[in-house]
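Journal club prep — side note

Before the paper discussion, L.F. wants everyone to see what a predicted structure for a comparable chain looks like in token form. Sequence:
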Amino acid sequence: MRGSRLLVIVLLVLASMAGSVDLSGAAGFPEKPITLIVQSSAGGGSDLFARTLAAIFEKEKLLPQPIVVENKPGGSGAIAWSYILGKRGDPYFLCTAGPGMLTVPILRKTPYTFRDFTPIGNFAFDDFTVITRSESRFKSIADLVREAKANPRRITVGGTQVGSTDSIGAYLFEKAAGIQFNFVSFTGGGEVNAALLGGHIDWAVANPGEAMELVKAKKVRALGVMTDKRLPSMPDVPTLREQGVDAIFRQHRALVAPGNLPAEARKVLDDAMLRYTRTAGFKKYMEDNTLSEGWMDGPTFGKFMEQESVKSVEILKGMGLLKK
């Protein structure tokens, strides 16, 4: 009897150990909070994306430990990415990533590229919108194009620094229409909106989520969206393509981790992120901020960045920011 009881205990212990092995270390990770670094200041789109994710992870208990958001703005994202670069192999750090992770290293000739990070996933796309003041003389994309052709570089467009997504969106518009604008650089989206509303610039490139509130308040007019089809949230706003300008541009919202991430931790994060995209909270975030679906798991997102990197080089060359 005593021998049988001992055998049962041994079998239970072995079963428990086998269970741990089957989980490939997943049961032990994470054992402490994960820090999510945002490459921009508080209040922006990347910050909202990160804090929404952290809040829903906590509410839905998608991981046994919380995700803590920390902002490290500066250098168009370079400060945050350099920080994450120094955490190689550490699964307790994540970082927001967008097109800047591709363009900034190219422009600044940094010692790292997007390949030095572990792609975790892409969650959504921000589709860009061309907006003017409600009082503007421009009532359509055709109006902008017509005047730009008659007066090259006279029409002003505002955005963050040259080489940013704003400036790339403006350049793609120029290239597709065969025109030239006068790009005016600002330090942030708030300054761009203030300049537009104050009549200091003629138009701006904006994310739909940012533009919608201004449109609803009748402070700005949306002339067109840089998408292949109209946005459900803005069904009355035609695409640029519909208006004769074949310019499409979107910004991805994604996460990366330090390079050399342990396979076990990556599997846990991959599974948790996929579950996150299926929550009601994430779907509401997408709807509230006029985002387009764009989920890609880590490997798929990695391939996407490889393709986008090639496009980025060609665009930056076309803008005169890189030698051809």
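L.F.'s comment for the group: The radius of gyration is 23 Å. Keep this in mind when we get to the figures.
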